[in-house]
Amino acid sequence: MLEIINLSKSYDGKKQACDHISLTIEKGDIYGFVGHNGAGKTTLLKAIAGILDFDQGDVLINGISIKTDPLAAKRQIAYIPDNPDVYESLTGIQYLDFIADVFEVELSLRNERIQRYATMFGIQDVLSNPISSYSHGMKQKLVLISALIHDPKIILLDEPFVGLDPQASYQVKQLFHDMCEKGALIFFSTHVLEVVEKLCNKVAIIKQGKIVANGETSSIIKDQSLEHLFMELIKES
Amino acid sequence: MITLKLIKVFFRENFQLSRLIGTNVKKNKKKAILLGVVLLYAFGVYLFSFGYLFFEFGKALKTLDSLDVLLQFGFMYGFGISLIIVLFRANGYLFHYKDYEILEPLPIPHRSVIIAKLSVMMILVYLSLAMILSPILFSYFYHAGFHLGKLLIVLIGFLMMPIIPLVVFSFISLIIARITSSFRKSNLLNILAMFLVFIGIMALSLSFSAASSGAGPLPGQQNFISGFASVYLPMQWFVSAVHDLALLDLCWLILSSMALLVGFVSIIQKIVLKTNQKGLSVITRRQSKIAKSQVHSTFTSLLMKEVRKFVSVPIYAVNSGFGPLLLVILSSLSLVFREQIMGFMSDTVGAAIPLDVVILLFVGFCLSTVFTSTFTLSLEGKQFWILKSLPIEPVKIMNAKMTFNILLALPAAWLSILLFSFSFSLEVVQIVVMLFVTLSFSLLTSAFGSVINLYFPKFEFRNDVEVVKQSVGALIGIFGGFAFIALNGVGYYFLNPLLGSNLTLTLMGILNLLIFFGFALLVSRLSAGQFRKMKA
User: Fold this and answer.
1) How far apart are CA B512 and CA B484, in angstroms?
2) DSSP secondary-structure letter at A164?
3) CB neighbour class for B270 (10 Å; exposed up to 12, middle 13-18, buried from 19)
4) Rounded CA gap, B237 and B243, in Å?
5) Tens digit of pLDDT for each residue in A101-145?
6) 3-class SS at A232?
7) Under a CB-based contact definition with an 8 Å cutoff, are residues B467 and B378 in contact?
8) For A71, which of B288, B385, B393 is closest by C-beta distance?
9) Comparing C-alpha atoms, which of B432, B415, B194, B426 is closest to residue B314?
10) Of B72, B251, B260, whose CA–CA distance to B169 is shortest?
11) Which residues of B lie inside 8 Å of A (Cβ-Cβ)?
């Protein structure tokens, strides 16, 4: 379970990028996180992943605080940023090995997972090439594989569908479902409201650092579209 | 007008204070004070070494009525600095600039972009030249007497000085990049080519100065510089224009340089367009070869990542690999050219010092040029999110970076000590002591570098050069290394008469180790906290 408890973060000490945010994401949830540009989505995701320190509150990863025991918490999560900036001096396989080494994934298991996901995303033939020769989409796929290599129970993704081809997008969605059925939870930000409507069982809407709506997707949007609801919430001051 | 606007934007991008030092000075007063102290120290070291050397050299030349030699030195150094900067930077500034995709769709004439890019690169060249040449020119005007006309000619000559190296070495840099890019291991070849150029220049300089070994570093270089002056007309024009107020020679200098510059700008327009367009195309070869996984410990994996980064960034490899390479080459050569190598080392570190100390000082000097731990954390740049999101203790990351610095420098240093010791028939005890001192010094400078990088990270950069050569961490790294050599030197100076050489050196080694432990402790205590503060 992922618990965000009263989390606040300010970059300049004045404006709150995240303002007393509390959310609970449970096992099996595919939780969509929407908001306008600069609303605080990436800040929150980075704070949960332990990349960004925050001023107040806590994040518990299956009961472990990212503040007090970051290593134990990070062992259970995978984070995928919005921009796949990875080590361009490495080859694809070297990067995957690096991540697998950190998570101490044994050889047979990592081989099996790399084979499975690389084939699924169609990049098995370029894994020995330097990452510098990859396209944006290929890098995105590589980062996705690296996130899945240790079979995480909590997956955080920032705009995961940007740069992916339609086939890969479909496969990622299928993968989300499969993983959640096995007890993982997924928390991701997106601007594509249709994806949230179709894929997520829960949704949170953030506006100027504050959560303005959250809960079961069906109960949040009721009989209107998420786009309509989103526009209304954004308009309200 | 648009060219000026572009220059303004590029200048801000390249030379903005917060970008250069990686921190906002106004917001971080502690860092600002520390930085001020470091810059003052660096300036002091520079003035009291380089400045004093040329002041004394000027004094000696005055008695021989040969003050024009100072101008030859100035021009030669200017040429050398321009060569190095252009060789390393022309590719990034002109042929593969990172903002090509931003600029190309805009309705800006190519000529304006090129002129603006060139101008910004030249600003970097001129700033470096001003720093190097001011002590030489001060010495010249002090000893020759101030003359306004001469000063004006010097200023004009100063502007013309780097133009020919700019034109010639821009093309050489492009040719190296073009040739090596067609190979699979293009980066390694690029690094090799850069090393060959530098070693070639050094070997040439050494072969000239060998003829007058033992006469100090500057007279040693004089033959080389005079030889260069005899074939390079712009240098002759500059020297006679300033020293003899020969205005015709000044005209020749201006005309030749400006003609070349105008020709260069018009010729390279198409080349720049082509190289930048080619840089955009991503060629992904599909291979039938199956990628194989290998299991390593986290620490080994981190270390391997450092090695791969090192060999993939030419500027990084050349900058940090030159010291160890120089050690291996010179110590190997000492087996054959014993006297010449000894002369070169004495010239570099100072004559009239015991043999083992000369070797140690030289090895220490080369070790000080390996300061990767002062900037490798910064080099993570936009990829820092990876390390921050992974379950790795920050201290382990820092230790891997520190270990890489040691592994890069120490084996070469030890090998060179063994070879030098064999060449100069040193005693076993001396050799053991030298190995110990070298080990302690390498540990000390590596740990010091890690502390520096924790305090002065610089994650915002467009080009690796900004971190490897121009960051505050790198600056403190190199001058810090020299400061530790000085500390050992002072200790040796006072203790040697009382305790003898071997015991004194051992004590210096122990002192280095103690300071190393202090720094290592600081790294282990600071890492987690500093990592939390760093933005990714």
Assistant:
1) 8
2) -
3) exposed
4) 10
5) 999 999 999 999 999 999 999 999 999 988 988 988 899 999 999
6) helix
7) yes
8) B393
9) B194
10) B260
11) 282-289, 291-298, 300-301, 304-305, 308-309, 311-313, 382-383, 385-386, 388-393, 532-533, 535-536
**For residue B184, what pLDDT is reported?**
66
For residue B39, what pLDDT is reported? 77
ipTM score for this prediction: 0.84
Residue of chain B minimizing CA distance to A115: B291
Q: What share of chain A is helix, strand, coil (3-state, %, to 5)?
A: 40, 25, 35
Whether the Cβ atoms of residue B457 and residue B380 lie closer than 8 Å to each other: no
Sorted by sequence, the CB contacts under 8 Å of residue A105 that are 6+ apart come out as A113, A149, A150
Count residue pairs from A and B with Cβ separation < 8 A.
112
Looking at beta carbons, which residues of chain B come within 8 Å of A92? 291
The C-alpha of B415 sits at a distance from chain A's nearest C-alpha, in angstroms, of 29
Quick check: B135 pLDDT over 70? yes
Q: Which residues contact B204 (CB under 8 A, 6 or more apart)?
A: B224
Closest in A85, A92, A101 to B296, CB measured: A101
| Helix and strand totals (H; E) in chain B | 23, 0
State how far Cα B299 lies from the chain centre: 29
pLDDT digits (tens, 9 = 90+) for B141-159: 999 998 999 999 999 999 9
Express each pLDDT in B164-190 by its tens digit.
999 998 988 888 777 776 666 677 777
Strands (E), B164-297: none
In the block, tokens 């080389």 appear at B224
pLDDT of residue A24: 94
**How far from the centroid of its chain's Cα atoms is residue B64's Cα?**
34
Does B213 have pLDDT greater than 60?
Answer: no
pLDDT of residue B183: 67
CB contact under 8 A, B308 and A90: yes
Band (B214; pLDDT cuts 50, 70, 90): very low
Distance from CA of B11 to the nearest CA of A (A): 26
Q: What is the 3-state secondary structure (H, E, C) of B45-67?
A: HHHHHHHHHHHHHHHHHHHCCCC
From chain A, the residues in CB contact with B296 under 8 A are: 97, 101
B427 Cβ partners below 8 Å, 6+ apart?
Answer: none
CB contact under 8 A, A87 and B383: yes
* Among A42, A51, A61, A142, the residue to mutate for chain B (most B Cβ within 10 A): A51
Alpha-carbon distances of B187 from B104, B174, B325, B382, B498, rounded to whole Å: 27, 14, 18, 21, 52
Question: Between B369 and B341, whose confidence is greater?
Answer: B369
**Mean pLDDT, residues A88-110:** 92
Q: Measured between CA atoms, how close is B273 to chain A, in angstroms?
A: 21
How does strand A30-35 pair with strand A185-189? parallel
Q: Which of B118-127, B176-185, B371-380 has the lowest mean pLDDT?
A: B176-185
| pLDDT above 60: residue B283 | no
